[in-house]
Write a structure and sequence with these properties.
The protein is α/β, with parallel strands linked by helices and 287 residues long. Helices cover 46% and strands 11% of the residues. The protein folds into 2 domains: 150 residues, Cyclin A, domain 1, CATH 1.10.472; 112 residues, 3-Layer(aba) Sandwich (Collagenase (Catalytic Domain)), CATH 3.40.390.10. The protein contains 11 helices and 6 strands. Strands 1-2-6-5 form a 4-stranded mixed β-sheet. The chain has a two-stranded antiparallel sheet with strand order 3-4. A hairpin with a 5-residue loop joins strand 5 and strand 6. Helix 9 packs across helix 10 and helix 10 crosses helix 11. The protein is globular and about 55 Å long. The structure holds zinc ion. The site of zinc ion has 4 residues, from helix 6 and helix 9.
Length: 287
């Protein structure tokens, strides 16, 4: 007698067969729009002709797979979506879009947005506060971006790469700085080696940060522009010292947009990132 489980199983097999037969949705990025998008992203200038074509193919498939939504009063335009897609696809140029599996939505805000938070301290008291964010990646949920920040592709800052790197990290659980390794693509990467290099670089950055903070005169507010010249000595944005997950995301931003400083400060960590992303922005680590 066929069981309900068997019937369900047959149905899901049929559904997966139909899904496979159904032509995949396709988006084509206009030639002029693609050109102006790449011109606005100086860090993709290093890509050769084949890699640019690969980035465009990925961005087109990305736009077909993901759903964009506008928050606030933002008018979400094609150039915004293509810019976000191009930046998001750079880290997965060789990993493929499977690195962004398990979630669909990208919510774009006009500017920084506010997120209410609650933390419970050791005494059990709940503290409520509001975070002002340029981007956030939710585990299993949407990715949120401020367009004002996503378009500001500075030499050391890239909120799109930052948040999408968190998404890659979350494929195998928490955003803890240990992304998933693929046996075929990463035959030499192992969690132990990765964690040791990450820990070493993270601790060194924290030690440098402690030293800098001890040198800031007491009459200078650490959050003021005046304190920035002290923090400028750090090889990475101080936010990387928050935890290993943020270290991975901030150093991945640097890896793609200002790689030389990262390589000089943390050569072993740089080489591992090149091995993971299967790209070497400086063309030196043999990736
Ligand atoms: Zn982050």
């Amino acid at each position: 007698m066929p069981s309900i489980i068997a019937l369900r199983h047959n149905r899901s097999m049929l559904k997966s067969l139909l899904d496979r037969l159904r032509p995949a949705a396709h988006v084509r990025i206009d030639d002029d729009l693609w050109r102006t998008t790449l011109d606005s992203l100086p860090f993709v200038a290093r890509l050769d002709h084949d890699d640019r074509r690969r980035l465009r193919d990925l961005a087109q498939q990305f736009l077909a797979d993901k759903e964009f939504a506008a928050a606030g009063r933002l008018q979400l335009t094609a150039p915004m979506q293509v810019s976000i897609a191009a930046q998001a696809c750079l880290p997965v140029l060789r990993l493929g879009l499977g690195a962004y599996r398990g979630w669909t939505s990208i919510v774009v805000y006009p500017d920084e947005f506010l997120v209410p938070r609650e933390v419970t301290d050791e005494a059990g008291i709940v503290h409520e506060y509001v975070d002002q964010l340029a981007g956030e990646a939710w585990d299993g949920g949407p990715l949120l971006l401020s367009w004002a920040d996503a378009r500001a592709v500075g030499p050391e800052y890239n909120v799109v790469i930052h948040e999408f790197t968190h998404k890659i990290d979350m494929v195998n659980g928490d955003a803890d700085g240990l992304p998933p390794f693929d046996r075929r693509l990463h035959p030499r990467l192992a969690a132990g080696r990765w964690r040791a290099a990450l820990h070493d670089a993270f601790e060194r950055l924290n030690a440098e940060l402690d030293l800098i903070e001890s040198e800031i005169p007491p009459d200078v507010d650490p959050d003021s522009p005046e304190a920035n010249r002290y923090y400028a000595r750090l090889p990475l944005d101080a936010y990387a010292a928050t935890d290993p997950g943020e270290f991975f995301a901030v150093s991945s931003e640097a890896f793609f947009v200002s790689p030389a400083r990262l390589r000089d400060a943390f050569p072993e960590w740089y080489a591992l990132l090149a091995e993971f992303f299967l790209q070497d922005p400086l063309g030196t680590a043999g990736a």
